[in-house]
Amino acid sequence: MDVPRQKELIQLCQDLVRRPGLSGREKEVARFVSETMRSLGYDSVTTDSYGNVLGRIIFSGKGEKLLLTSQMDHVNAGDAAEWSQYPFGAFEKNERIYGRAASDQKGALAAMIMAGAHLKEDHGFALNGELVVAAAVHQETFESVASKAISDSADATCVIVGEASALSLERGQRGRAELQIETFGKMAHSSHPEFGINAADKMNDLLTYVKKTFIPPKDPFLGEGILVLTSLFSTPLSNSGAIPEKCTAVFDRRLLLGETLEGVSREIRKIIGKASETIPDLKTKVSFPVIEDRCYTGAPIRGNHFAAAWLLPENSPYIQNLREALAESGLPAEISNRSGFGTNGCYFAAEKKLPTIIYGPSERELVHGIDEYIVIDQLLKAYQGYYAMAKRVLSTVNNTMHMKY
Length: 405
Prior knowledge:
By secondary structure, the chain is α+β, with helices and mostly antiparallel strands. It contains nine helices and 20 strands. The chain has a six-stranded mixed beta sheet, sandwiched between helices. Strands 9, 12, 13, 14 and 17 form a five-stranded antiparallel beta sheet that branches.
């Protein structure tokens, strides 16, 4: 990678980081991505109703349709005073670029955009098929809704997701379901709790029972299907003089292969049924909350926090071809021995059954943290990796790689 291209990539990463893009507020990032793709010679650049930006490069002849995808949105930066660098300054220091989303995933997005443009410039007439680089909205809030729209438009045959993987090939991840349990009681004045039924007390007893009883399923590669309490609140919220009539607990349940919402629901209801034998007056409701929001385009977006687990076999022709492409380019060609986390890969791999891998710069430990940064050397190597892998995939003719899940 020559020096001018290095500088161009670093500048693009900084320009992306300097444009905040909370979920549903990615408009400025999307506009900049769209303009950048056009200026770099992408054959077409479109924005769908949700605000996802898709840049296409069409090569000669028939071949694979490779999708490279990274998110545009990010979590809140928190208190800027806690950062040693301004969260959206994209300052370069100690061979790093600091800023919110530098690792998650604007570094990967910048590398994908540049790799696609340079691949066309260097090998346009020698390659086959189509490359789509997709910048996704709402990844932090809706795991699969925006991904479905991208998939419908891209019609890809194989996918690379730009999550932070320390430049290793990650071939699967646990899924996720957000589960809500409500307990119900009877309001009474807090000076005479005996006249009511305290829903918070019932929840406390139930949580203790669940914690003692729940045994997470295990997978030798993906790990445990853990159940983690993430939120707890009672109703009414503001009336300190009354015992609560309802208490709500929200859990994050990590899913293993084959687990479904229906199966998770049956599992937790069975535990609650056993708990009711020892907890008097226990009344509950189990649900999977549906959330709604607006995209920056004004379009409504709706769904629940559910993503199925997936795992690509290590001997898959797809992952072996990508590994060889990296090795031939002098890059690390490691297949990770741990699963990925929280990516859009769940839709492409689990729902669409497309060969999917996770590959991106930076470390997962930096994601969502204070003083998030990306090491410039990893940014440059990610670009080289996307370039090499895309070149290998698009060098095939008429799907001769037989890329099966």
